[in-house]
Amino acid sequence: MPRYTLKEIRNKIENGSISMESLTTEYLQAIEDTKELNVYVNVFGNEALAQARALDIKFNANPSQMGKLFGAVVSIKDVICYQGHEVTAGSKILSGFKSLYNSTAVAKLLSEDAIIIGSTNCDEFAMGSSNENSSYGPVRNMDNPDFIPGGSSGGAAVSVQIDSCLMALGSDTGGSVRQPAAYCGLIGIKPTYGRVSRHGLIAYASSFDQIGIVGRNTEDIALLLEVISGADEYDSTVSNKMVPEYSKDIRTDKKIKIGVLNSFFNHPKMNEEIKSSSLKVLKYLENEGFTMVPQEFINIDYLVPSYYVLTTAEASSNLSRFDGIKFGYRSNTNSNLETLYRASRTEGFGMEVKRRIMLGTFVLSSGYYDAYFEKAQKIRTLVKEEIERLFTEVDVIALPISMDYPWKIGDSNQDPVTVYLSDVFTVIANLCGIPGISFPLGRGKNNLSSGIQLLSKKFEEQHLFNMTAILQNMAQ
Ligand code: GLN
Asked: pTM to 2 decimals?
């Protein structure tokens, strides 16, 4: 399957060498050919083809009438609602549940003539960093199928990696778009909290969750973000701020100031190869005329603990609605209401989700609220203040995505804390509500990748796109 950009696809459609139908057929074939990677939960094959044919007819009748995303075939993570289609958050507790409405992101995609090809596998309720926590089993990394693709949007990343779509929508609560994108050699962005509506995104931790995008090409990702962003009457946390034309405003000549978190790159547990490729990228930028400002971030040890206290607290509340009555799975053990609730939740949720519901309920319980939840909230404020301070000196901050490469499937199952700690570099953006992007560093050990991460101030996604456009040129 050729790796076209959206522009190339549009050109090929215009000169008649491909049609949306032929393109969609090739994408569907890619899904067929890689079934063993366990990428998709549901493939909307017939429907995608019908959409493609309808778009071909519309284009042939009046090419100037096509939407901004005509030519784009997109996958959606199994936490994003698409009316009339099953959505399960990778969980048995939602099996068979069909969404009654479109998420705002999906509605916007469709209104600009994108095609949705299927829903992708993910960690249950987006809780995980490896895609090993899905009720459908793990997703495999195409670059080395014995290894994880990262998570929780592992299926989203691999759907792009196998060229079964142009881009993927995922969700990022603590790194779930940026980390799998990096592990699969792709670009991943988590926008500012409040940039994209969360209406129709199944909630994990509502003050952290954002829909994000995985893709290969900066301009395409920028265009997709432009389309799905913006005010929404169904989500009061979405900003009314005007949405820039990110894709048109990409500037590769802007010599901005980059803060470099040296102690992160020099962390004793940092993989040497990842470190040296990251430093090479930074050196390249310096040679290109960017000013590098060495910076320190002090509160590193508190990032993961505060993130896991706050997100599990929010999750314990958000997931209380799954009771065997309203949605999806219902247990047969139903002698009375109490046993029905209990049995449905016991049978429906997987182990990691149960662990987090219990942890979250504990940190919110009377007597522990002050000791854990309130303290974590204070740390969140401190982290935000520290980041704001760093941004008084620079426009963009550079840091790693991960200390190491993806691990072998099954290796981490016994020790959740080790997995939690692997999120240290990605949770900052979500704790602060700022945007972050990951750029792949190229293949290393075991043919696998990781990435470098760039953060900017709230609503300054443009800086991030400018930077990855420059890095894309470097990689070519
Ligand atoms: N790995 C993190 C967690 O398990 C992040 C997940 C996410 O961003 N959805 O909470």
From this structure: 0.97
